[in-house]
């Protein structure tokens, strides 16, 4: 009686074992199939052999044209034209260091289009310079609080800027372009320092290639420079070569200000004159 009952039990155990083996095999196959792509994806996300530049390039490629255009205050169509100009025209060689709106303005089809791009660039530069000036002021205060007996160390390659404390015989140099945001504001503050100090001159240098005398005169009028000051307390000059000589090819924002004292040029902190 017991032997007869054992046979069904053995059969049942064999059936269960076979089922478990089949399920285990299926589970192993399923996990193997799904795990490989997951591991591949993980390898794409975190690759210890990628250089920093490769990681940055990978991230940049993920941005859509719409996102990149929006970052510069442009439409997608504008940004596509900028990319085309940089790839298929001499602009790609001439204007490597210029912002997209500047390149588009220089390749504008008419004055209205140039004005539209100039306004975009003016807004972008105003926002940038405003942030940099705010940081410059806060950085100076922070450094002075931490090291009151030391001269602040600036992060830029050029020497740290001084205030516009003029002495008789000094000359102030102001470097701008005809589209420089804050350029006229810098002039208005610098001319006050010149007029308050005897025997000093403000030399305004215009940076940019193929600048016309008319463009310089229009800038002077818009900045409010009286004609009777020109060539007396204020001079207007072409300054591309002088600017390149001073900055030695470094990326220096405009307006750029300095003082000539005892035939030595010393950069001035822009925040000290605004």
Any overview of this molecule?
This protein is 56% helix and 10% strand. A 5-stranded mixed β-sheet has the order 3-2-1-4-5. The termini are far apart. The chain folds into 2 domains: 62-153, no CATH class; 171-272, 3-Layer(aba) Sandwich (Glutaredoxin), CATH 3.40.30. It has 10 helices and 5 strands. Helix 4 packs across helix 6 (100-106), helix 6 runs antiparallel to helix 7 (111-146) and helix 8 packs across helix 9 (213-223). It has 274 residues and is of the alpha/beta class. Strand 2 (201-206), helix 9 (213-223) and strand 3 form a beta-alpha-beta unit. The radius of gyration is 33 Å and the shape is globular. Mean pLDDT is 76; it is low at 30-46 and 155-162. The longest helix is centred in the first third of the chain and has 44 residues, at 2-45. It has helices at residues 2-45, 52-62, 65-71, 76-88, 91-94, 100-106, 111-146, 183-195, 213-223, 240-247, and strands spanning 171-176, 201-206, 234-238, 256-261, 264-268.
The gist of it:
The protein is of the alpha/beta class and 274 residues long. It has two domains: 62-153, no CATH class; 171-272, Glutaredoxin (3-Layer(aba) Sandwich), CATH 3.40.30.
């Amino acid at each position: 009686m017991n032997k007869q009952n054992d046979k069904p039990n053995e059969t049942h155990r064999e059936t269960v074992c076979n089922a478990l083996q089949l399920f285990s095999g299926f589970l192993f196959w399923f996990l193997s199939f799904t795990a490989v792509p997951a591991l591949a994806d993980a390898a794409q996300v975190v690759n210890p052999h990628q250089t920093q530049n490769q990681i940055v390039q990978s991230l940049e490629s993920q941005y859509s044209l719409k996102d990149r255009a929006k970052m510069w205050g442009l439409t997608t169509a504008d940004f596509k034209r900028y990319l085309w100009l940089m790839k298929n025209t001499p602009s790609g060689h001439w204007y490597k260091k210029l912002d997209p709106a500047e390149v588009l303005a220089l390749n504008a089809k008419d004055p209205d289009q140039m004005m539209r791009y100039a306004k975009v660039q003016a807004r972008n530069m105003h926002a940038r310079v405003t942030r940099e000036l705010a940081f410059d002021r806060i950085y100076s205060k922070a450094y002075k609080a931490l090291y009151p007996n030391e001269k602040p160390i600036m992060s830029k390659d050029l020497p740290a800027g001084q205030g516009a404390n003029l002495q008789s015989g000094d000359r102030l140099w102001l470097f701008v372009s005809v589209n420089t945001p804050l350029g006229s504001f810098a002039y208005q503050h610098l001319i006050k320092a010149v007029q308050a100090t005897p025997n000093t001159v403000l030399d305004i240098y215009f940076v940019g290639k193929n600048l016309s005398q008319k463009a310089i005169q229009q800038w002077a009028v818009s900045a409010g420079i009286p004609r009777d000051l020109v060539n007396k307390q204020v001079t207007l000059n072409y300054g591309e070569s002088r600017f390149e000589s001073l900055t030695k090819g470094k990326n220096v924002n405009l307006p750029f200000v300095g003082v000539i004292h005892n035939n030595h040029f010393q950069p001035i902190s822009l925040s000290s004159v605004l």
